[in-house]
Amino acid sequence: MYNDLAGVASLRRVDGMVGTRGRIQRSTHLVETPLKYAGDSITVGTTDSTRFREYDDGTSYGITFDDLVVGWYVRIAGTVDGDGFTAERVIQYFEEE
Q1: Residue 9 class from Cβ within 10 Å (0-12 exposed, 13-18 middle, 19+ buried)?
Q2: Nearest to residue 15, comparing CAs of 29, 5, 2?
Q3: What pLDDT is recorded for position 34?
Q4: DSSP secondary structure string, the chain?
Q5: Which phi and psi angles does 89 have, rounded to 5°?
Q6: pTM, rounded to two decimals
Q7: Which of 50, 43, 46, 47 is nearest to 84 (CA)?
Q8: pLDDT digits (tens, 9 = 90+) for 44-97
Q9: Which of 49, 63, 78, 92 is the most exposed place for a label (fewest CB within 10 A)?
Q10: Pairing of strands 20-21, 24-33
């Protein structure tokens, strides 16, 4: 269904870790772009090789899955896995509270 998300998608995290299978961590996000999927909820899986970054005021630095904040904007790149998505790269964008 989400085959064209295999490039880059813009999402907002809506919950914490759903569970683990081995070393795979999953979270649920609402799609913002591509627009044809806007508002859809999608499960995003990550693996040991997924790279996590945070971008804050022109600076990017490494983070972990646990540093992802519910409600913050992220961009992901990866591959479609059935109705879910396996992220190769996750970039979280700092949002002031």
Answers
A1: buried
A2: 29
A3: 75
A4: --GGGGSEEEEEE-SS---EETTEEEEEEEEEESGGGTT-EEEEEEEEEEEEEEEETTEEEE--GGG--TT-EEEEEEEEETTEEEEEEEEEE----
A5: -145, 135
A6: 0.73
A7: 43
A8: 888 888 999 999 988 999 998 888 887 788 888 888 767 677 888 888 888 765
A9: 49
A10: antiparallel
The pair of structure tokens assigned to 62 is 């490494």
CA 17 from chain centre, in angstroms, equals: 12
